[in-house]
Specification:
alpha+beta; 16 strands; elongated
C-alpha cells in the first residue's frame, strides 16, 4: 500500500532580547541555576507582569519577513496546566488573537508552505533529572524568556521538505536578528505533527506529535522513523493512536510520552493583568522599511554584484553569518569565485567536522583573504593553502605566521627548480622515453616527483614550464 505523508511544524524561537517578556531579569544563557529570576517570573503572589515592547517588535518583524498579516489588535491569554517547571501553573501565551497570521515560506521547488500564525509567549523552566531517576531538580532561569511560536499548516509531504522548511525559517530569523537560533542551547526547537494517509485520499490520518526536537538531524531522523512506524502499524492491521512522542537519539526511535491533550484542556482565557496590544499602520510600516535584505534578496545581489553562479549564491546566502563572512573576505581579497570555492569547500567541510555553527567561524575573514592572496601571488600552492587553512582553523593564527613556522613558502627560484627538474629527468628515464614517444601525460608524473621531493613547495606552474623546456632540449 502506498501512503502520503502529512507534516506540520510548531517552531519555538527564543527572542534575543536582553530581558524577559514580563520582567527585567536577564535572558542570558548559562547562568547558575535559579539566579536569573525574580518574584514576577517565579509567579509569586501579588506580582504583576509588564509586557516587554521589544518582544512585540521582534514578533512583528518575524511576521513581516514571513509574509504574514499583522493584527492591529491582539491580546494575551492564560494557558492553564500544571507542571513542575511552570511556577504559576499557567503560561501566558496567545490563543485566538495572535499578532501575526497567514504567512508562508517558499521551498526551492516553488512549493508554498503556509503559516497559520505567529504568536508570543513565555518559556517555561527546565527540569534536570537525576541519573537514577529518583528525583528531578528545577532551574527557573528560562522561565519568562520570550518566545515566538511559528505554526505551519500541514503542507509538508516528506521529512526532506520539513528539513528544508526549518533551514529556511532559521535563515530568515537570523537575517532579521530576532533570535540567535542556537539549537544546542534550546533557543530554536520544534514540535512536529505527522500522519499518513492512503495515496490521494482527502481524509487525514491520525497524527502523532513529536516534542522538543532541537537539531535538524534529529528532526529528519524522527520524522523518517515515525513515518515508517505508522506505515507498519497500518499494514499490520492496527490503528495509529493520537499521542505525544519524543525522539530518543541513542536508540534512534520515537518513544511514547503521553496521550495527546486537546486545546480545550488548557482552559484558555484572557489574562486580566495585561491590556490588549494595539498596533497602528505607521508602526508596522516603520518596522517593515527597516528590515534588512532577506536570503532571497541577498542571493539576487550576490549573483548580480559579485557575479556568482546561482548555486554558489544560494549556498552562501542560506546563512546570514556565511554571507557576512563572504563579504568580509572579499573586502580584503576581491575574487568572489575563488572565495566562494574556498568557503564551500574547505571552510564548510571543517565546520561540519567540528560541528560548529556559522556564527562561530574560527578564522577571521581578513586572514582567509590574506591566504587566498598568497596563493594568487604564487607564494604557496593551492594544496599547501588548504593545509595552512586547517592550521588557521585550529589555531586562529595568521596564514603568513603558519607558513613561516612550518617552512611552507613556495619555491619560485628558477635555478633551484631547474635542478629539481634535471634530477627528476635523470631518475625517471622511462617517463622521459614515454614523453619523447608522444605520451604527454608523462610530464605530470615528472612534476609529481618534484612536488614530492620538494614537499609540495615547488611552484607547479614554473616547474611545468622548466620541465617542458628540459625535455624539449632532449628531442634534439
Amino acid at each position: 500500500m502506498i501512503f502520503d505523508t502529512v507534516i506540520g511544524l510548531e517552531v519555538h524561537a527564543e527572542l534575543s532580547t536582553k530581558t524577559k517578556i514580563f520582567c527585567s531579569c536577564s535572558t542570558e544563557f548559562g547562568g547558575k541555576p535559579n539566579t536569573h529570576v525574580c518574584p514576577i517570573c517565579l509567579g509569586l503572589p501579588g506580582t504583576l507582569p509588564v509586557l516587554n515592547k521589544v518582544v512585540v517588535e521582534y514578533c512583528i518583524k518575524a511576521g513581516l519577513a514571513l509574509n504574514c498579516t499583522i493584527s492591529k489588535l491582539s491580546k494575551l491569554d492564560r494557558k492553564n496546566y500544571f507542571y513542575p517547571d511552570l511556577p504559576k501553573a499557567y503560561q501566558i501565551s496567545q490563543y485566538d488573537m495572535p499578532l501575526c497570521k497567514n504567512g508562508y515560506i517558499i521551498l526551492e521547488s516553488g512549493k508554498k508552505i503556509r503559516l497559520n500564525r505567529i504568536h508570543i509567549e513565555e518559556d517555561a523552566g527546565k527540569l534536570i533529572h537525576s541519573e537514577d531517576g529518583d528525583y528531578s531538580l528545577v532551574d527557573y532561569n528560562r522561565t519568562g524568556v520570550p518566545l515566538i511560536e511559528i505554526v505551519s499548516e500541514p503542507d509538508m509531504a516528506s521529512p526532506d521538505e520539513a528539513l528544508e522548511y526549518m533551514e529556511k525559517l532559521k535563515g530568515i530569523l537570523e537575517y532579521i536578528d530576532v533570535s540567535d537560533c542556537k539549537m544546542q542551547e534550546g533557543s530554536l526547537r520544534c514540535d512536529a505533527n505527522i500522519s499518513i494517509k492512503p495515496e490521494g485520499s482527502n481524509i487525514l490520518g491520525t497524527k502523532t506529535e513529536l516534542k522538543n526536537i532541537n537539531s535538524f538531524k534529529a528532526l529528519h531522523r524522527a520524522l523518517c522513523y515515525e513515518q515508517e512506524r505508522q506505515q507498519v502499524v497500518i499494514e499490520d492491521g492496527g490503528k495509529v493512536i493520537q499521542q505525544t512522542r519524543r525522539w530518543d537519539e541513542p536508540k534512534q526511535k520515537t518513544l511514547i510520552m503521553r496521550g495527546k491533550e486537546q486545546a480545550q484542556d488548557y482552559r484558555y482565557f484572557p489574562d486580566p493583568d495585561l491590556v490588549p496590544i494595539a498596533i497602528d499602520d505607521e508602526y508596522i510600516q516603520g518596522l517593515k522599511s527597516a528590515l534588512p535584505d532577506l536570503p532571497k534578496e541577498k542571493r539576487r545581489k550576490f549573483i548580480e554584484s559579485f557575479g556568482l553562479p546561482e548555486y554558489d549564491a544560494g549556498i552562501i546566502t542560506s546563512s546570514k553569518y556565511l554571507a557576512e563572512y563572504f563579504e568580509g573576505v572579499n573586502e580584503h581579497y576581491y575574487n568572489p569565485k575563488a572565495v566562494s570555492n574556498f568557503i564551500m569547500g574547505e571552510l564548510m567541510r571543517l565546520m561540519k567536522e567540528a560541528d560548529l555553527e556559522y556564527k562561530n567561524i574560527p578564522v577571521k575573514a581578513g586572514y582567509l583573504g590574506d591566504l587566498l592572496k598568497m596563493i594568487d601571488d604564487g607564494k604557496i600552492s593551492v594544496s599547501v593553502g588548504k593545509r595552512v587553512f586547517e592550521e588557521m582553523f585550529k589555531s586562529g593564527k595568521k596564514p603568513l605566521d603558519i607558513v613561516n613556522e612550518l617552512g611552507l613558502m613556495q619555491i619560485s627560484d628558477k635555478a633551484q627548480l631547474a635542478e629539481f627538474a634535471k634530477k627528476a629527468i635523470e631518475e625517471n628515464p622511462k617517463s622521459v622515453e614515454d614523453y619523447l614517444s608522444g605520451k604527454g601525460k608523462a610530464v605530470g608524473f615528472l612534476i609529481g616527483q618534484v612536488m614530492r621531493k620538494s614537499k609540495g613547495k615547488a611552484n607547479p606552474t614554473l616547474l611545468k614550464d622548466i620541465i617542458l623546456q628540459e625535455l624539449k632540449g632532449l628531442k634534439r
